[in-house]
C-alpha cells in the first residue's frame, strides 16, 4: 500500500425515522439557528419538511429556509444561501434532499464565514477550512456527499462545473433513512447506480497501484450496487435492498477506497461535468454514456485490471467483454450508453473537445487529457 | 440493514517513516506536553524512541516517559501512568507499541482527567467522555485499537480483564508504519492473525442479521489476513503484505463491520479474556484455541452462515468442514488449537467454567453464557 492519510469525522445516523431526531442531533452541538436548504416543494407536500421543522422546534432551534436548489446545482443559488445565512446569523446549515442540495449547503456553510467570493473555493483561490456546521437528511443515494467534504457547483455564465474540498466541509451528522429514498423513479435509480459505479471505477480502473484489499473492497461495493439495483427495479419498496444501495453509495466516495492506492484519476467525472453543465442532463446519465467509451480508451493502459474487472464483476473473460457486459448492464437498468440516447448532438463533439481541452489546460492536466484523448472517448460514445 | 450510528474520528497516518512526523501531528492540535507510554526497552535499543523524542523536540513538545507495559496490560501500570500524567500536567498521551501499550494509554488519558478511580470506567460506573488527547505509533498489528475507542486492562488482584469505551478514547492520530511491524516473530504474527479473525468471526458468525454487503466486506478482510499471513511467514520483509495485514487489522475493529448488523456478540473474546488473565498466554493464542471449539457449539444456531463461511473462505462444503479447515489453517500458521497446545491444564476446566459463569452472571449474560455452554466449548477445546 502506498502512504496515505485517512480522516473522516462525519457521524452517520442510519435507519428508519432517524430524521425525526434531527433536532436532537443538532442540539448536541449547541447550535440554535439553522438554515434549511432544499430542492423542490415535494418535501413540503409529503410532510418531510414539517417533520424536520417540528423536530427542530422541539429542541428550541429556530430556522430559516431556502428552497429551489436544482440538479447540477448553480452558483447563484449558493450566493443566495450565503447572503441568507449571513443576514440571519445561522450557525448551521441543514440540507434536506440529494447530493445537489447537500453540495450547495456545503458551499453556503463555507461562504457564510468567508469574506471573499465563495467561488474562490471552487477556483482554488481559497480552501474552506472554516464553515458553519453542516447537517443533512438524504432523500437520494448516489453522490456520497453525505460522508465526504466535496461539493460540486456550476457557475452558470461560464458553465464551469467545479468542486471544493476543505477540512470544514465534512457534514457533522448525516441522516440516511432508506425509506426516504424509496420514491426515486427507476430512471433516477439507474443514474444513481451509474454514479456509484463511476466513483468506484474511476479509481479501480486508473490506479497504477491498487492493493488487493482495496480491489476486493471496491468489487464488494460494485456487486452490492448490481444486486440491489436489480432488486429495486423490480420492487421499489424492498427496504433491505434500498438500505444496502444507500450504504454502498456512501462507501464509494467516503475516501475508504482511496487508502493505499496510487495515481487514481477521475477521468469520467472530469469529462462528464462539462456534459451535464452544457446540456443539463443528469450526472449519472452523462456518466453511463461516457464510462464504456472511456474504458475502451483506458483499457490498454491497465489490461490486467480490466481483465480482472471482467472476471470478478461479470464472470466473462477479456477486457473488451467486460466493457461490453457493463454497457449491456447499463442498458438493462435503463441508463443511456450513447450520446444519442442522452440527446446530445454528435455534431457538438468538436465543441466539447475544445471546451474540455481548454479546461484541461487551465487545470494543468492537458498532458493527460489531450484533444486526441477527449475526441477518442466522445467518438467511442457515438 | 438494521438502524445504526457510525462515528470514527481517528485520523490515520499510514506509511513509511510516518513516525518521524509525530511531533508535527501533535503540534497541529496545539499540545505541548506529552506522556510517552511504551512496553519493553526494545524501542530504546532499536532507535525508535530516539526518533520519536527528536520529532517532539523539534516541535517544542516536552515529554515524560512510562515504560514497562506488558501484554495483557495491568491496572497497576495504568495507575502509575495516571499519577505521572497528573503530576507532570501532560496534555496528551503518546503510545509507542502494540495494542497493550495503546489500551493502557487510553486508560491513562481518561484517568488523568477523572477525579475517581480509573477502574470505574472498566466496571461501568463511569464513561470516559473526557480524556487527554491520545496519539499512537503502532509497532504491532492485531487489536485494531488504533482506530477504535476500546481498551482492555486486567486488574491483577481479581484477574478481571475488562474493557472501557467512551467518546474521548478514540486516538486523535494513529501512525501505522508497516515497516515498524516487521520485527514481529512468526509466532506472534500467527496470534495476531487469530486476533483479527476473532474480531471478524465473532461478528460474522453470531449476527442474527448480517447484510450481504457486510458479509462480503468481512470476507474481504479475512481473505486478506489469510493471504498476507502466508506471505509474511515466508518473507517477513514483504512490505505490501505487511501493509495490507496492518490495514485489515485496523478495519476488523473500527466499527465498519458493525454497520447494519443485528445482535452480534463477542463470545470468544468473552471466553478468552479469562484464559489470558489466568494463564497470561497471548490473547491471540487463547482465541485460536477457543474459536474452533466455540464454532462447534455455535454452528447449529446459524447453520447457513457457517456453510457460507466454509464455502467463501475455504472453498469447502458444510459447516463442519469449514470449522475443520479453519482449525487446520491455524495449525499451519503455528497458532495453538487445543488447551494442551496452549499449556492450559485440562483439569482446570471446572474452575474456568465456574469463573466464567460468575462473570457472566455479573454481566447479566448468564442466560447466554450458561455453565453448560462454557463447559461444552472448553470440552471441545481438549
Oligomer: homodimer
Helices and strands of chain A: which structural class?
A: alpha/beta
Report the sheet-strand fraction of chain A. Answer: 5-15%
Q: Specify the number of helices of chain A.
A: 14
The N- and C-terminal alpha carbons of chain A lie at a distance of: 38 Å
Query: What sort of overall outline of chain A do the alpha carbons produce when their principal axes are compared?
Result: globular
Please characterize this protein's 3D structure.
- The structure is a homodimer of 382-residue chains.
- Chain A is of the alpha/beta class and 382 residues long.
- Chain A has 2 domains: 11-180, Rossmann fold (3-Layer(aba) Sandwich), CATH 3.40.50.1970; 185-380, Dehydroquinate synthase-like - alpha domain (Dehydroquinate synthase-like, alpha domain, Up-down Bundle).
- Chain A is 48% helix and 12% strand.
- Chain A has helices at 22-27, 42-45, 48-58, 75-87, 99-111, 186-204, 212-234, 239-252, 267-279, 283-298, 303-314, 319-333, 349-362, 371-380, and strands at 4-6, 11-14, 33-38, 62-66, 92-97, 133-138, 150-155, 160-165, 173-176.
- A 6-stranded parallel beta sheet of chain A has the order 2-9-6-5-3-4, with helices on both faces.
- In chain A, helix 5 (99-111) links the parallel strand 5 (92-97) and strand 6.
- In chain A, helix 6 (186-204) packs parallel to helix 10 and helix 11 (303-314) crosses helix 12.
- The two termini of chain A are 38 Å apart.
- Chain A binds chain B through residues 1-16, 18, 178, 211-213, 216-217, 220-221, 223-224, 227, 240, 243-244, 247-248, 256, 259-260, and chain B through 1-16, 18, 178, 211-213, 216-217, 220-221, 223-224, 227, 240, 243-244, 247-248, 256, 259-260.
- Strand 1 (4-6) of chain A pairs antiparallel with strand 2 (11-14) of chain B, so a sheet runs across the interface.
Amino acid at each position: 500500500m502506498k502512504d496515505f492519510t485517512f480522516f473522516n469525522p462525519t457521524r452517520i445516523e442510519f435507519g428508519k425515522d432517524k430524521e425525526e431526531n434531527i433536532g436532537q442531533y443538532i442540539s448536541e452541538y449547541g447550535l440554535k439557528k439553522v438554515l434549511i436548504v432544499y430542492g423542490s416543494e415535494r418535501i413540503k407536500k409529503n410532510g418531510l419538511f414539517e417533520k424536520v421543522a417540528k423536530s427542530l422546534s422541539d429542541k428550541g432551534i429556530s430556522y430559516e429556509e431556502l428552497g429551489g436548489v436544482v440538479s447540477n446545482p448553480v452558483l447563484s443559488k449558493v450566493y443566495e444561501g450565503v447572503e441568507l445565512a449571513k443576514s440571519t446569523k445561522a450557525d448551521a446549515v441543514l440540507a434536506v434532499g440529494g447530493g445537489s442540495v447537500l453540495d450547495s449547503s456545503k458551499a453556503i456553510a463555507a461562504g457564510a464565514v468567508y469574506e471573499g467570493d465563495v467561488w474562490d473555493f471552487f477556483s482554488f483561490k481559497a480552501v474552506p477550512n472554516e464553515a458553519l456546521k453542516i447537517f443533512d437528511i438524504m432523500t437520494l443515494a448516489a453522490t456520497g456527499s453525505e460522508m465526504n467534504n466535496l461539493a460540486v457547483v456550476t457557475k452558470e455564465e461560464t458553465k464551469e462545473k467545479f468542486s471544493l474540498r476543505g477540512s470544514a466541509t465534512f457534514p457533522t451528522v448525516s441522516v440516511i433513512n432508506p425509506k426516504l429514498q424509496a420514491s426515486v423513479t427507476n430512471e433516477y435509480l439507474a443514474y444513481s447506480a451509474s454514479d456509484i459505479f463511476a466513483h468506484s471505477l474511476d479509481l479501480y480502473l486508473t490506479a497504477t497501484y491498487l492493493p488487493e484489499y482495496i480491489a476486493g473492497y471496491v468489487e464488494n461495493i460494485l456487486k452490492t450496487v448490481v444486486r440491489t439495483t436489480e432488486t429495486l427495479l423490480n420492487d421499489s419498496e424492498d427496504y433491505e435492498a434500498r438500505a444496502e444501495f444507500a450504504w454502498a453509495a456512501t462507501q464509494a466516495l467516503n475516501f475508504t477506497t482511496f487508502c493505499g492506492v496510487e495515481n487514481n484519476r477521475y477521468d469520467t467525472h472530469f469529462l462528464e461535468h462539462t456534459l451535464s453543465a452544457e446540456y443539463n442532463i443528469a450526472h449519472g446519465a452523462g456518466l453511463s454514456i461516457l464510462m464504456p467509451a472511456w474504458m475502451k480508451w483506458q483499457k490498454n493502459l491497465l489490461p490486467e485490471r480490466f481483465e480482472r474487472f471482467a472476471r470478478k464483476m461479470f464472470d466473462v473473460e477479456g477486457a473488451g467483454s467486460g466493457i461490453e457486459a457493463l454497457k449491456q448492464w447499463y442498458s438493462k437498468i435503463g441508463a443511456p450508453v450513447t450520446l444519442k440516447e442522452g440527446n446530445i448532438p454528435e455534431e457538438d463533439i468538436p465543441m466539447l473537445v475544445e471546451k474540455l481541452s481548454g479546461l484541461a489546460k487551465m487545470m494543468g492536466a492537458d498532458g493527460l487529457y489531450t484533444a486526441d484523448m477527449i475526441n477518442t472517448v466522445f467518438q467511442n460514445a457515438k
